[in-house]
Amino acid sequence: MPAWVEGRVAGRRQWNDSLFSLMVDAPEVTFIAGQFARLALPAPPGAKEPMLGRPYSFVNPPSTQPHEFYFIILPEGPLSPRLAALDAGDSVWLAPRANGFFSIGETADAESLWCLSTGTGIGPFLSMLRTHEPWQKFGRVVLVHSVRHADELTYRDDIAGIGHAHPGAFDYVPMVSRDVHRDALAGRIPAAIDDGRLEARVGLSLTPENAHAMLCGNPAMVDDVQKVLATRGMRRHRRKEPGHITLETYW
Ligand SMILES: Cc1cc2nc3c(=O)[nH]c(=O)nc-3n(C[C@H](O)[C@H](O)[C@H](O)COP(=O)(O)OP(=O)(O)OC[C@H]3O[C@@H](n4cnc5c(N)ncnc54)[C@H](O)[C@@H]3O)c2cc1C
Ligand SMILES: NC(=O)c1ccc[n+]([C@@H]2O[C@H](COP(=O)([O-])OP(=O)(O)OC[C@H]3O[C@@H](n4cnc5c(N)ncnc54)[C@H](OP(=O)(O)O)[C@@H]3O)[C@@H](O)[C@H]2O)c1
User: Fold this and answer.
1) Is residue 149 in contact with ligand 2, taking CB distance under 6 Å?
2) Are residues 115 and 73 part of one domain?
3) Which of 68, 93, 210, 229 could form a disulfide with 60, with the two C-beta atoms 3.0–4.6 Å apart?
4) b or e along 43-70 (b: 16 or more beta carbons within 10 Å of the residue's beta carbon)?
C-alpha cells in the first residue's frame, strides 16, 4: 500500500477570515462516519519527512463524494495556512486508510445522544448525523456547537437539513462565548450542563440512565465536561467496560 494517495481539490469554501472547508476528490479513501483522514502536502526543504501531514475529520457522510474537511487557519501553524491556499484542481495527499474510534458503533445504547463540540469539532458530527446509524440507535439527538463568536456558527443549512430529515428527534443548540447572540446560549458547555441551562433548552435530562455523550474539539472542554458529567455518575465508555462518554480531542 502506498504511503499517500493523491487527491484533487474539487472546491473550497471560506466561512470567515479563519474558517475554511475543502472538498477533495479521492474516492479510493473510504471511512466510517466520525473517522479522520490524514491530509498532507510536500514538506518544506530540509524537513525530516518528505510529506507534512495532519489528521482532519471527514465532514461528508461516507456515501457521498467529494470528501469534505472543515478547518481553522492557524496563522503560525505549518499546515493549515497551506491547505487554505489550495484551489480547485490542486493536488493534496491523503493517507490511504481512515482512522479513529469516534463513531456511533463505539457508543453505548441510550435513549438520547448528546453531541458536544467546540469550533471545528462539529465536523465528525455532521458526518455521523447524515447517516442512518444514530437515528436507529437513539430516540433523540442533541447537537451542541460552542464557538467564540457568532460568525463561527457554520454549516447552518446542513444542520437545518438534518432537522428536516428527523422531525421531533433532533435539537441543535448553538453556544457563543464572546458575543451576545439571540438564538445561542451564552458561555461554555460545562457551565451550561452544571446549571441546567442545556437540559432546559432541549427538555431532556443528561443522566447515566438515559444518555450517551460524544465530545469533540478543544481538549480543555473535553476534560471539563468529563468532570461535570462525573459528578452525575457518567464515565468513559470502553468496549470492555461500558460507560456513557466517547471522545476525540483535536490537539
Ligand atoms: C483526531 C484529530 C482530528 C482532527 N480534525 C481536525 C479537523 O477536522 N479540523 C481542524 O481544523 N483540525 C483538526 N485537527 C487538528 C489538525 O490536525 C491540525 O493540528 C490543525 O489543522 C493545525 O495544523 P497546523 O499544522 O497549522 O498547526 P499545528 O502545529 O498542528 O497546531 C498548532 C496549535 O493550534 C491549535 N489547534 C490545532 N487544531 C486546532 C483546531 N482544530 N481548532 C483550534 N485550535 C487548534 C493547538 O493549540 C495546536 O497546538 C484534528 C486533530 C486530531 C488529533
Ligand atoms: N476563533 C477565532 O476568532 C480565531 C481566529 C484566528 C485564530 N484563532 C486561533 O484558533 C485557536 C482557537 O480556535 P477556536 O476559537 O475554534 O477554539 P476554542 O478556543 O476551542 O474555542 C471554541 C469554544 O470553546 C470554548 N472553550 C475553551 N475552553 C473551554 C473549556 N475548558 N471548557 C469548555 N469550553 C471551552 C471557548 O470559550 P471561551 O471563549 O470562553 O474561551 C469557545 O466558546 C486559537 O489558537 C486561536 O488563537 C481563533
Assistant:
1) yes
2) no
3) 68
4) eeeeeeeeebbbebbbbbbbeeebbbbb
